[in-house]
Request: fold
Amino acid sequence: MMVRLLAIAALAVGLAGPAVAQGNAPERTRQQIEAFMHEWIDAYNRGDSKTMASLTTADSFGVGDRGVISGNQRFERAVENEANLGAKVKSMDVDEVRMIGRNAAVAAGSYTVTYNNPQNPQPLTIEGTWMQVLERQRGGWRSVAASYTPFNPPPSPPPAAGASAPQPSAGSSTQ
Reply:
């Protein structure tokens, strides 16, 4: 009977190990990731593509309303393009942080970005949600993958003069 209880206890401890390594992040880890996100925002708002690239892994990629970007050079160009459009993060909340291993986490929240393009007198504000997969490397967190989903994507440009408006696909109702 005692041997059976010890075997069950050993099995329970063995199964609990992986469960403890995953789930809600410890407060210290959450604070580290929040600090990482503040550094990310600061670099983005300065248009500092080199610093932003240093906060990502060499094989990182991003997914957003403009598609998938990967590679540091493409990433740096995307940041520079956003800076040229006057993009500034006004808020980025860290709502969730979950551990997905000892040195990996996923974080998510909401964001607000305002574009103050000098060529457009009306600022454009976009709100949405973000998610990043992060990996602890060399004592700090690095972004492996990121996704940004706007709630209110920028409006599509109107059709060119003389162009017909888009038509519904075959079989769809127009009423």
